Amino acid sequence: MSDSTAIAHEAHHEHPPYQRHHFETVEQQADATNFAMWLFLLTEIMFFGGLFTAYLIYRNWYYPAFVAASHQLDIRWGTANTAVLISSSFTMAMGVWCSETRRKSGLVLCLVLTFLLGLVFLGIKTIEYSEKIEKHHVPGFHYSLNSFLNPDSDEAAKAAGDKPLPLDMARHTELYFFLYFAMTGMHALHMIIGIAILGYMIFRARAGAYTTGHVTFVENFGLYWHFVDIVWIFLFPLLYLISRHAN
Amino acid sequence: MSEPIKHGDEHETHDGVEHAAKHGEHEHHVTPPIVYIVIFGCLLVLTAATVGASYIEMGVFNPIIAIAIGVVKATLVVLFFMGVKYSTRLTKLTVGAGLFTFLVLIGMTLSDYISRAWGRW
Fold first, then answer.
1. Which residue of chain B comes nearest to A50, CA vs CA?
2. Which of A6, A25, A49, A88 has its CA 20 to 30 A from that of A141?
3. Which residues of B fall within a CB distance of 8 Å from A35?
């Protein structure tokens, strides 16, 4: 308690080195930075929102194609990745707490764990992507409709009990995979950027940064990381769980 | 399960740091780890629930349940992991504005797609 109140008093009288001159108080600076971070996240919401809207419309138009195409995704990898990402959000939240309570080694540990879980996520995504490449499910010239026209020849389609789709509907599976790669790809790009920043933060945290009472950077990075987690929270049911019950 | 979440509520304060945060108006709020742990558990349980629900035939309710669970999970992340529950009114308003604008994007686009060929099918 004394720790925290002491900082507040200091902030009003002397200026901590991290307080910029154009701010009256440290609190004002923190609030302004937090506000700015949220404004950035709003642009991100609208960016992913466009992709989600496109998904929603095409899913309604070409539902059978979306169902068949979604059966090509491995639900086990998807579930595992969801758990991995939620865990990384948890370690990041704990990192913010360590930063706020000035636990240097705890912060470094949390950041390293978040970093590693982020890499595990991307590793699993790589396995999934390479499977799609092997089966020619990447939209483009080499796209193959085989899994959807002859589902018995495809293990995943057979396991899901898919019936052959008419050619015009089967073609629309390419649209599903286009959205799949656009959405998970943009999500993965955000992960890569996040992991790069995490690497920088680990380096800085080991040198003693973020545990001196100035937690803004860790806190705002946490907001970014949790946002990326939220995007996946919606991508997972929309892409993997369209219809696992009906045939 | 909802029990420990309430510890972060306005009136129950055990942690000294948290106590200080309530009195100084602009004081930085520190969410105690127990809140993060409980939310983490809830998110994992909800993930299992959404996978399980996808295997049950519920007709039109399948996507509705999936989205509903997603919304609950996202709300937990926003309120606790992102700390919006304890943040300033400005932040809350900003988050609300983002959600509203997103709903406008989805709602108006879909209303166009639904109504464009109205009566011509």
1. B105
2. A49
3. 90-91, 94
